Task: inverse folding
């Protein structure tokens, strides 16, 4: 994520990347663009900085990668593994718990 | 793409990024840059403008290299907790690892030399020539154990892409322990211990092993960086 993102956003990149890869396999540029466009540009990875993060997820066996040629271009495609899917379920549950809690507090404050 | 990719590659090497990682990161950033360029071309920009925009989106290659290295360090426990991993943990782990490696080495020698036969070992201990060989075998296993512990921390430092000073710190701790620990063999007995006495030449030889390894890695790393820069310059 961008350096300016506050620390409470730690863990969100993992959730976003795993969520995107749960739908289909993607390469780095696609992931960056999808995050940017689908979050209404509220969140974005620094260009190029996604790769060490993907390598980390690969080392953790949450994603796997394969370099192959599609439409004349060679790229590294990443896809979710069974371990990544399990991790995504955990993170999604945690995210829902946190956002529900925050929503309750915010509604109370502005009611 | 000499204007963007080569400075990025060179800076990653200078920062001590493992070469396999350099190759992979550079290849993926080059792919990413090409995707940015293609996106700009599809919007109707000229080739030169598309390339300029792709470069602008990626930013300064030297800054990008720093960010990539920071992300690489953050991606491993050793990279995130380098003070604990290379400053504190060696203080606790080196004696344990040294003992473990030494015992493994001695067990291997015992298996190869005596076929796990204690009687043969006791007979050898009573023979001055064979006993001298046992002493040499102990020294060999001891030196190898010290080298292995040092290499383990050097490997972890390299793998997690931490700065050279943390690798040297862990080597210095290994050296200090090598100076004060000892293994001694006498006929029918074997002891391990600590001592502050610095009069034994063997202790200084042991202490030199981690420092020699650190020096060799430092020279190798410098040669790799220089060799790479010369290759790029050509």
Result:
């Amino acid at each position: 994520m961008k350096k300016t993102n506050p620390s409470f956003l730690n863990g969100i990149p993992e959730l976003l990347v795993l969520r995107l890869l749960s739908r289909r396999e993607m390469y780095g540029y696609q992931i960056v663009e999808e995050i940017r466009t689908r979050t209404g540009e509220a969140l974005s990875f620094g260009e190029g900085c996604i790769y060490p993060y993907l390598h980390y997820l690969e080392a953790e066996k949450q994603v796997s990668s394969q370099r192959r040629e599609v439409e004349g271009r060679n790229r590294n495609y990443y896809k979710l593994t069974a371990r990544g899917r399990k991790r995504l379920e955990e993170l999604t549950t945690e995210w829902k718990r946190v956002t529900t809690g925050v929503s309750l507090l915010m509604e109370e404050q502005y009611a | 793409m000499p204007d963007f990719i080569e400075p990025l590659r060179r800076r990653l090497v200078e920062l001590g990024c493992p070469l396999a990682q350099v190759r992979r990161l550079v290849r993926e950033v080059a792919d990413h840059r090409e995707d940015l360029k293609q996106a700009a071309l599809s919007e109707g920009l000229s080739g030169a403008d598309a390339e300029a925009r792709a470069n602008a989106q990626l930013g300064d290659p030297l800054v990008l290299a720093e960010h990539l290295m920071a992300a690489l360090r953050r991606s491993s426990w050793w990279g995130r907790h380098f003070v604990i991993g290379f400053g504190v943990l060696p203080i606790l782990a080196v004696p344990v690892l040294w003992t473990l490696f030494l015992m493994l080495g001695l067990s291997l020698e015992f298996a190869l030399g005596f076929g796990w036969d204690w009687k043969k070992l006791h007979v050898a201990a009573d023979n001055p020539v064979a006993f001298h060989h046992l002493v040499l075998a102990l020294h060999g296993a001891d030196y190898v154990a010290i080298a292995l512990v040092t290499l383990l921390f050097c490997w972890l430092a390299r793998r997690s892409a931490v700065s050279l000073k943390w690798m040297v710190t862990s080597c210095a701790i290994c050296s200090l322990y090598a100076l004060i620990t000892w293994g001694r063999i006498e006929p029918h007995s074997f002891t391990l211990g600590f001592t502050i006495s610095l009069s034994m030449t063997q202790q200084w030889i042991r202490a030199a092993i981690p420092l020699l390894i650190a020096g060799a890695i430092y020279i190798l790393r410098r040669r790799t960086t220089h060799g790479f820069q010369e290759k790029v310059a050509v």
The first strand of chain B starts at residue 181 and ends at 186. The first helix of chain B runs from residue 5 to 14. Chain B touches chain A at residues 21, 24-25, 27-29, 31-32, 34-36, 57-59, 64, 67-68, 71-72, 74-76 (CB under 8 Å).
